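Late entry, written up from scratch paper. The run itself happened at the end of the previous shift, but nothing got recorded in the book at the time, so transcribing now.
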Amino acid sequence: MISRKNYPSPALLRKAVSDEMRARAVSARCVVTDAAHRTMADGARKARAGRTRFAASRPAQVTAGIAAAAAIGTLAATAPWAGAAASTADAVHGGHVPTISTHTTADQSKAAAKAATSSQPETIYDSVAPTEIPAGQHVATYADGPFQASSASVAGRGSVLWIDTNGTNPQANALDVEPGDATPTEAASWVSAKLSANPHSDPIVYTFLADWGPVQSNINALPSWMQSHVRYWIADPTGTPHIVPGASATQWYWGGSYDISMAQPGFFK
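Output as recorded:
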Protein backbone atom coordinates (compact mmCIF):
# COMPACT_ATOMS: atom_id res chain seq x y z
CA MET A 1 0.00 0.00 0.00
CA ILE A 2 1.33 3.48 -0.89
CA SER A 3 1.80 5.93 2.04
CA ARG A 4 1.73 9.70 1.44
CA LYS A 5 4.48 10.27 4.01
CA ASN A 6 6.94 8.47 1.76
CA TYR A 7 6.35 10.91 -1.14
CA PRO A 8 6.92 14.57 -0.13
CA SER A 9 5.77 16.03 -3.47
CA PRO A 10 2.49 15.45 -5.31
CA ALA A 11 4.34 14.62 -8.52
CA LEU A 12 6.25 11.79 -6.87
CA LEU A 13 3.04 10.50 -5.31
CA ARG A 14 1.21 10.49 -8.62
CA LYS A 15 4.08 8.59 -10.26
CA ALA A 16 4.14 6.03 -7.47
CA VAL A 17 0.37 5.53 -7.74
CA SER A 18 0.67 5.13 -11.52
CA ASP A 19 3.46 2.57 -11.17
CA GLU A 20 1.45 0.62 -8.59
CA MET A 21 -1.61 0.54 -10.82
CA ARG A 22 0.42 -0.75 -13.80
CA ALA A 23 2.03 -3.44 -11.63
CA ARG A 24 -1.38 -4.58 -10.38
CA ALA A 25 -2.74 -4.64 -13.95
CA VAL A 26 0.16 -6.80 -15.11
CA SER A 27 -0.32 -9.11 -12.13
CA ALA A 28 -4.04 -9.39 -12.84
CA ARG A 29 -3.37 -10.24 -16.47
CA CYS A 30 -0.95 -12.94 -15.41
CA VAL A 31 -3.50 -14.41 -13.04
CA VAL A 32 -6.14 -14.44 -15.79
CA THR A 33 -3.70 -15.96 -18.27
CA ASP A 34 -2.63 -18.66 -15.80
CA ALA A 35 -6.26 -19.47 -15.07
CA ALA A 36 -7.05 -19.66 -18.78
CA HIS A 37 -4.10 -21.93 -19.37
CA ARG A 38 -5.19 -24.17 -16.51
CA THR A 39 -8.72 -24.26 -17.89
CA MET A 40 -7.52 -25.13 -21.39
CA ALA A 41 -5.15 -27.80 -20.10
CA ASP A 42 -7.91 -29.30 -17.96
CA GLY A 43 -10.22 -29.29 -20.98
CA ALA A 44 -7.60 -31.00 -23.11
CA ARG A 45 -7.04 -33.66 -20.44
CA LYS A 46 -10.78 -34.28 -20.22
CA ALA A 47 -11.07 -34.53 -24.00
CA ARG A 48 -8.22 -37.06 -24.17
CA ALA A 49 -9.77 -39.03 -21.33
CA GLY A 50 -13.12 -39.01 -23.11
CA ARG A 51 -11.61 -40.31 -26.33
CA THR A 52 -9.75 -42.99 -24.40
CA ARG A 53 -12.93 -44.13 -22.64
CA PHE A 54 -14.83 -44.19 -25.95
CA ALA A 55 -12.15 -46.25 -27.68
CA ALA A 56 -11.91 -48.60 -24.72
CA SER A 57 -15.67 -49.09 -24.53
CA ARG A 58 -16.07 -49.87 -28.25
CA PRO A 59 -12.98 -51.76 -29.43
CA ALA A 60 -15.02 -54.04 -31.67
CA GLN A 61 -16.69 -51.14 -33.46
CA VAL A 62 -13.38 -49.37 -33.93
CA THR A 63 -11.72 -52.51 -35.24
CA ALA A 64 -14.64 -53.21 -37.55
CA GLY A 65 -14.50 -49.69 -38.89
CA ILE A 66 -10.81 -49.98 -39.64
CA ALA A 67 -11.34 -53.34 -41.31
CA ALA A 68 -14.24 -51.99 -43.36
CA ALA A 69 -12.19 -49.06 -44.55
CA ALA A 70 -9.35 -51.34 -45.53
CA ALA A 71 -11.74 -53.66 -47.32
CA ILE A 72 -13.31 -50.81 -49.25
CA GLY A 73 -9.89 -49.68 -50.33
CA THR A 74 -8.96 -53.19 -51.40
CA LEU A 75 -12.20 -53.61 -53.32
CA ALA A 76 -11.72 -50.32 -55.08
CA ALA A 77 -8.22 -51.33 -56.11
CA THR A 78 -9.02 -54.89 -57.14
CA ALA A 79 -12.55 -54.57 -58.54
CA PRO A 80 -12.97 -55.99 -62.05
CA TRP A 81 -13.91 -52.57 -63.37
CA ALA A 82 -10.83 -50.88 -61.88
CA GLY A 83 -8.48 -52.22 -64.53
CA ALA A 84 -11.02 -51.60 -67.24
CA ALA A 85 -11.44 -47.99 -66.15
CA ALA A 86 -7.71 -47.41 -66.23
CA SER A 87 -7.43 -49.02 -69.66
CA THR A 88 -10.31 -46.90 -70.91
CA ALA A 89 -8.67 -43.71 -69.64
CA ASP A 90 -5.41 -44.63 -71.38
CA ALA A 91 -7.24 -45.43 -74.57
CA VAL A 92 -9.18 -42.16 -74.48
CA HIS A 93 -5.96 -40.25 -74.10
CA GLY A 94 -4.62 -42.23 -77.04
CA GLY A 95 -7.49 -41.17 -79.23
CA HIS A 96 -9.93 -44.12 -79.13
CA VAL A 97 -12.42 -45.69 -76.75
CA PRO A 98 -12.40 -49.53 -76.46
CA THR A 99 -15.42 -51.71 -75.83
CA ILE A 100 -15.39 -53.03 -72.25
CA SER A 101 -16.73 -56.55 -71.73
CA THR A 102 -19.36 -56.89 -69.01
CA HIS A 103 -18.22 -60.44 -68.22
CA THR A 104 -15.74 -60.63 -65.38
CA THR A 105 -12.98 -63.13 -64.92
CA ALA A 106 -14.88 -64.59 -61.95
CA ASP A 107 -17.93 -65.26 -64.14
CA GLN A 108 -15.77 -66.94 -66.75
CA SER A 109 -14.07 -69.07 -64.09
CA LYS A 110 -17.43 -70.20 -62.69
CA ALA A 111 -18.69 -71.08 -66.16
CA ALA A 112 -15.54 -73.07 -66.90
CA ALA A 113 -15.78 -74.92 -63.57
CA LYS A 114 -19.43 -75.76 -64.22
CA ALA A 115 -18.63 -77.03 -67.72
CA ALA A 116 -15.75 -79.13 -66.40
CA THR A 117 -17.97 -80.64 -63.70
CA SER A 118 -20.79 -81.43 -66.14
CA SER A 119 -18.35 -83.31 -68.41
CA GLN A 120 -17.11 -85.62 -65.65
CA PRO A 121 -18.49 -89.16 -65.10
CA GLU A 122 -20.95 -89.48 -62.24
CA THR A 123 -20.74 -91.93 -59.35
CA ILE A 124 -23.80 -93.85 -58.15
CA TYR A 125 -24.14 -95.78 -54.90
CA ASP A 126 -26.91 -98.37 -54.70
CA SER A 127 -27.94 -100.43 -51.70
CA VAL A 128 -30.80 -102.32 -50.09
CA ALA A 129 -29.94 -100.20 -47.02
CA PRO A 130 -29.50 -96.65 -48.37
CA THR A 131 -28.64 -95.27 -44.93
CA GLU A 132 -25.27 -97.02 -45.39
CA ILE A 133 -24.48 -94.82 -48.39
CA PRO A 134 -22.15 -91.85 -47.68
CA ALA A 135 -23.92 -88.51 -47.28
CA GLY A 136 -24.10 -86.28 -50.32
CA GLN A 137 -23.65 -89.08 -52.84
CA HIS A 138 -26.01 -89.98 -55.70
CA VAL A 139 -28.23 -92.86 -54.60
CA ALA A 140 -30.06 -95.68 -56.35
CA THR A 141 -32.51 -97.68 -54.24
CA TYR A 142 -35.76 -99.62 -54.47
CA ALA A 143 -39.19 -98.10 -55.01
CA ASP A 144 -40.93 -101.43 -54.38
CA GLY A 145 -40.27 -105.09 -53.57
CA PRO A 146 -38.94 -106.64 -50.35
CA PHE A 147 -36.27 -103.93 -49.96
CA GLN A 148 -38.51 -100.92 -50.65
CA ALA A 149 -36.87 -97.78 -49.22
CA SER A 150 -38.48 -94.73 -47.68
CA SER A 151 -37.80 -91.10 -48.52
CA ALA A 152 -36.40 -90.62 -45.02
CA SER A 153 -33.76 -93.29 -45.65
CA VAL A 154 -32.20 -91.26 -48.47
CA ALA A 155 -32.31 -87.88 -46.73
CA GLY A 156 -29.03 -85.99 -46.92
CA ARG A 157 -27.93 -87.74 -50.10
CA GLY A 158 -27.64 -86.37 -53.62
CA SER A 159 -29.98 -87.22 -56.49
CA VAL A 160 -32.07 -90.35 -55.96
CA LEU A 161 -32.73 -93.00 -58.62
CA TRP A 162 -35.81 -95.08 -57.75
CA ILE A 163 -35.75 -98.67 -59.02
CA ASP A 164 -38.81 -100.77 -59.93
CA THR A 165 -38.14 -104.47 -59.30
CA ASN A 166 -41.11 -106.14 -61.03
CA GLY A 167 -42.09 -104.01 -64.03
CA THR A 168 -45.34 -102.68 -62.55
CA ASN A 169 -44.22 -99.15 -61.66
CA PRO A 170 -43.37 -97.10 -64.80
CA GLN A 171 -43.14 -93.98 -62.64
CA ALA A 172 -39.86 -95.28 -61.22
CA ASN A 173 -36.61 -94.08 -62.82
CA ALA A 174 -35.15 -97.52 -63.53
CA LEU A 175 -36.14 -101.17 -63.93
CA ASP A 176 -34.18 -104.06 -62.38
CA VAL A 177 -33.93 -106.92 -64.90
CA GLU A 178 -32.30 -109.95 -63.30
CA PRO A 179 -33.31 -113.40 -62.01
CA GLY A 180 -36.09 -112.98 -59.44
CA ASP A 181 -37.04 -109.52 -60.70
CA ALA A 182 -38.33 -108.27 -64.07
CA THR A 183 -37.70 -110.33 -67.22
CA PRO A 184 -36.37 -109.12 -70.61
CA THR A 185 -39.88 -109.29 -72.01
CA GLU A 186 -41.26 -107.26 -69.11
CA ALA A 187 -38.48 -104.74 -69.71
CA ALA A 188 -39.90 -103.88 -73.14
CA SER A 189 -43.41 -103.52 -71.70
CA TRP A 190 -42.15 -101.29 -68.90
CA VAL A 191 -40.24 -99.03 -71.32
CA SER A 192 -43.30 -98.72 -73.55
CA ALA A 193 -45.58 -97.85 -70.63
CA LYS A 194 -43.15 -95.25 -69.26
CA LEU A 195 -42.62 -93.50 -72.60
CA SER A 196 -46.31 -93.58 -73.43
CA ALA A 197 -47.02 -91.76 -70.19
CA ASN A 198 -44.07 -89.39 -70.54
CA PRO A 199 -42.52 -89.24 -74.04
CA HIS A 200 -39.71 -86.97 -72.79
CA SER A 201 -38.49 -89.38 -70.11
CA ASP A 202 -35.37 -91.56 -70.38
CA PRO A 203 -36.12 -95.07 -69.05
CA ILE A 204 -33.13 -96.74 -67.40
CA VAL A 205 -32.84 -100.52 -67.63
CA TYR A 206 -30.45 -102.32 -65.27
CA THR A 207 -29.25 -105.81 -66.10
CA PHE A 208 -26.18 -108.08 -66.03
CA LEU A 209 -23.69 -107.94 -68.86
CA ALA A 210 -24.52 -111.58 -69.74
CA ASP A 211 -28.27 -110.78 -69.98
CA TRP A 212 -27.92 -107.54 -71.91
CA GLY A 213 -28.37 -109.21 -75.31
CA PRO A 214 -31.85 -110.67 -74.62
CA VAL A 215 -32.99 -107.41 -73.02
CA GLN A 216 -31.88 -105.41 -76.07
CA SER A 217 -33.58 -107.86 -78.41
CA ASN A 218 -36.95 -107.26 -76.73
CA ILE A 219 -36.56 -103.50 -76.47
CA ASN A 220 -35.44 -103.27 -80.11
CA ALA A 221 -38.90 -104.45 -81.09
CA LEU A 222 -40.29 -101.13 -79.87
CA PRO A 223 -40.61 -98.06 -82.14
CA SER A 224 -37.24 -96.48 -82.90
CA TRP A 225 -38.08 -93.25 -81.03
CA MET A 226 -38.66 -95.29 -77.88
CA GLN A 227 -35.41 -97.20 -78.34
CA SER A 228 -33.50 -93.91 -78.60
CA HIS A 229 -34.65 -92.89 -75.11
CA VAL A 230 -33.51 -96.06 -73.33
CA ARG A 231 -30.35 -95.92 -71.22
CA TYR A 232 -28.68 -99.14 -70.18
CA TRP A 233 -27.16 -99.62 -66.74
CA ILE A 234 -24.98 -102.75 -66.96
CA ALA A 235 -23.55 -104.80 -64.08
CA ASP A 236 -19.92 -105.72 -64.74
CA PRO A 237 -18.23 -105.89 -61.31
CA THR A 238 -14.56 -106.00 -62.27
CA GLY A 239 -13.52 -103.87 -59.30
CA THR A 240 -12.18 -101.16 -61.62
CA PRO A 241 -14.19 -98.04 -62.51
CA HIS A 242 -15.32 -98.19 -66.14
CA ILE A 243 -18.32 -97.87 -68.42
CA VAL A 244 -19.11 -100.75 -70.77
CA PRO A 245 -19.16 -99.48 -74.39
CA GLY A 246 -22.73 -98.75 -75.45
CA ALA A 247 -23.98 -98.44 -71.88
CA SER A 248 -24.88 -95.25 -70.03
CA ALA A 249 -23.66 -96.59 -66.68
CA THR A 250 -21.79 -99.61 -65.33
CA GLN A 251 -21.95 -101.17 -61.89
CA TRP A 252 -18.27 -101.97 -61.44
CA TYR A 253 -18.10 -102.72 -57.70
CA TRP A 254 -20.15 -105.06 -55.50
CA GLY A 255 -19.68 -104.49 -51.76
CA GLY A 256 -21.18 -105.65 -48.49
CA SER A 257 -23.00 -102.37 -47.71
CA TYR A 258 -23.43 -100.87 -51.16
CA ASP A 259 -22.45 -101.22 -54.82
CA ILE A 260 -20.82 -98.49 -56.91
CA SER A 261 -21.42 -97.54 -60.53
CA MET A 262 -19.83 -95.10 -62.95
CA ALA A 263 -22.24 -93.20 -65.22
CA GLN A 264 -21.99 -90.95 -68.22
CA PRO A 265 -22.33 -87.19 -67.53
CA GLY A 266 -26.00 -86.23 -67.34
CA PHE A 267 -27.16 -89.67 -66.21
CA PHE A 268 -29.13 -87.91 -63.48
CA LYS A 269 -31.44 -85.40 -65.18
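The radius of gyration is 45 Å.
(Scratch paper discarded after transcription.)
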